[in-house]
Design goal:
Strand content of chain A: under 5%
Structural class of chain A: mainly alpha
Number of strands of chain B: 10
Shape of chain B: globular
Order of helices and strands of chain A: HHHHEEHHHHHHHHHH
Strand order of the largest sheet of chain B: 6-7-8-3-9-10
Largest interface: A-B, 18 and 22 residues
Radius of gyration of chain B: 18 Å
Largest sheet of chain A: 2 strands, antiparallel
Strand order of the largest sheet of chain A: 1-2
Structural class of chain B: alpha/beta
Order of helices and strands of chain B: EEEHEEHEHHHEHEHEE
Low-confidence stretches of chain B: none
Radius of gyration of chain A: 24 Å
Oligomer: heterodimer
């Protein structure tokens, strides 16, 4: 049963990847210009040279032709050639992906480690002053744009010299508070929903101790939405930090992606987008597997 | 049905009020207005009345889930309202309440065995093996098949869930069982079956029942006394002699 489920998920993932790559190809095609448009403005480069460059990059071919070239290249593990760097996209993306993952995994782990106990604690004291303060401050944090927050941290770091510019601690210091409030709110809400369930109140009325109530009734029930949330945050591992990376100068996918979009470096953009889609599929799959092992109801069906 | 004439529960002019609304528009609502009532061992008292008349509040006060503002509740010769909370604990197992929405009071992630043995776990009753044996006994005493023990409670039918909740309430051998419209969501046939089961259990364990009901015709078969509440006051007490 698990096997057929996995097989179905694999099919879904392949379909998703096809659609995402097609979509990114189409959208890039709709944008005016291509990689060589700016070069056309340079009077020192002759039209002949331009034409031969276009031919070399395969820009003269039709869209379906280019797409099939890319699919064949992806199947070989290269994911096309970057025009700007003149190298296979995979070799270009791989080290940057690792450094992005280092940043996002560190800050995600940190955010979960802070948010989980804090959220449960706040939910257990719903309506108390610490809880209200927490809700208020998460709203405050959520309403500050990521960019402004990142710049603020940068200024503080530069003035006080506490954190090295471009280092991992600085980037984590920016990214963790950006993802923390949302996690905290979801965890608090999830635990509140679980602890408000009728059977929890019934158990409390039956004289079940608070300790047993929380660890046997509430937290197992709250784990369901939290596991889905965890899957989603794994899915966002590659894409959540793009903007922050650009601002703090972290050598990850963010700056590369921004540059590639600006320069119409076709295959790099498609490669990064497809990679994010793979992470999305992997994240949801991970959540589903965890749910399967955690919830007796799913296992029995 | 009245096997024993001694008084089990005596409610003496109990008053309870709630505050409704926020502090700037607070209203006091009198839910119980000096209610006096007695329940004999092994007898059945039906509590009827319109919604909002204080039936559930009275049930919750007797089950020690609410503290009355005034008056006394005596159980088996002891004044529960005067006892310290820690001393009250011992009596709580003797009074069990089966809630209005039975299905929702069962944890959907748990098996029937886990649900029935929870009160036993909480009271540190016996060892794991003894508890399992006792759960099986309980399950069979409410007319459920022993194979239900390993089934998930979300997979049970409405009638099975009601029986399961009854088994759980019986686990600690209570003297008084309060049924707060626990049968209201079942169809007529099932209600009749469960009422027969209740009568049977009453004979075996000399249980007293406090049955809260909308529909008197159903519980009439097993009732010794009918008490009607209206806006927190008792307006009628009829004693049937069988």
């Amino acid at each position: 049963m698990l096997k057929s489920f996995l097989l179905r998920r694999l099919q879904h993932t392949l379909l998703l990847l096809t659609l995402v790559s097609m979509g990114s190809f189409l959208l890039l095609e709709l944008a005016p210009g291509d990689f060589l448009t700016e070069t056309t403005l340079n009077p020192r480069i002759s039209p002949q040279t331009l034409a031969s460059l276009r031919d070399r990059f395969g820009l003269t071919k039709s869209l379906p032709e280019r797409y099939f070239y890319w699919v064949r290249s992806a199947a070989q593990g290269e994911f096309g050639i970057s025009f700007a760097y003149d190298m296979p996209v995979r070799a270009l993306i791989w080290p940057r992906m690792l450094s992005t993952l280092l940043l996002t995994a560190t800050s995600l782990g940190l955010a979960w480690m802070i948010a989980l106990p804090l959220g449960v604690w706040a939910a257990a004291r719903q309506g108390s002053w610490p809880d209200r303060l927490l809700v208020l401050s998460t709203s405050g944090f959520l309403s500050i744009p990521e960019l402004v927050f990142a710049c603020g941290i940068l200024i503080i770091a530069a003035k006080t010299q506490w954190l090295r510019m471009g280092g991992l601690p600085l980037a984590v210091c920016v990214l963790t508070p950006v993802s923390l409030p949302l996690l905290l709110r979801h965890i608090r809400a999830g635990v509140l929903t679980a602890s408000g369930a009728t059977y929890v109140r019934a158990a409390r009325a039956h004289g079940v101790s608070e300790m047993r109530l929380w660890f046997r009734h509430v937290l197992p029930a709250a784990s369901h939405p939290l596991i889905s949330l965890f899957g989603l945050s794994v899915a966002g591992l590659l894409s959540s930090s793009l903007l922050v990376e650009v601002v703090v100068g972290w050598p990850g996918l963010g700056p590369l992606f921004l540059e590639a979009v600006g320069a119409r470096d076709f295959y790099v953009v498609t490669g990064v987008v497809s990679l994010s889609a793979i992470f999305l599929a992997a994240g949801t799959l991970l959540a589903d597997m965890l749910l399967y092992f955690c919830d007796p109801r799913i296992r029995m069906n | 049905m009245m096997t024993d004439r001694s008084t089990l529960v005596e409610v003496r002019s109990v008053t309870k009020s709630f505050t409704r609304g926020r502090w700037y528009s607070a209203q006091r609502v009198l839910a119980l207005d000096s209610v006096t009532l007695s329940i004999h061992c092994g007898s059945t008292v039906a509590l009827v009345g319109a919604s909002g008349s204080g039936k559930s509040t009275l049930a919750r006060c007797i089950a020690q889930m609410e503290k009355p503002d005034g008056g006394e509740i005596w159980f088996d010769g002891r004044n529960l309202t005067a006892l310290a909370p820690s001393a009250c604990r011992r009596f709580r197992t003797r009074i069990q309440l089966v809630p209005q929405n039975v299905a929702a009071s069962l944890n959907p992630r748990w098996t029937a065995a886990q649900i029935v043995s929870e009160p036993l776990c909480v009271q540190r009753w016996g060892r794991a093996n003894d508890r399992l044996r006792r759960s099986l006994e309980l399950i069979e005493s409410v007319g459920l098949d022993s194979s239900t023990l390993q089934q998930n409670s979300s997979h049970l039918s409405g009638g099975q869930r009601t029986r399961l909740a009854l088994a759980r309430a019986l686990a600690l051998e209570p003297r008084l069982l309060i049924l707060d419209e626990s049968l209201a969501s079942l169809d007529l046939l099932l209600q009749a079956q469960i009422i027969n089961l209740l009568i049977d259990l009453q004979a075996r364990h000399s249980l007293a029942y406090l049955v809260i009901a909308h529909d008197m015709t159903l519980v009439a078969a097993m009732t010794d006394k009918v008490v009607e509440l209206q806006q927190g006051k008792i307006v009628r007490q009829d004693v049937y002699t069988c």
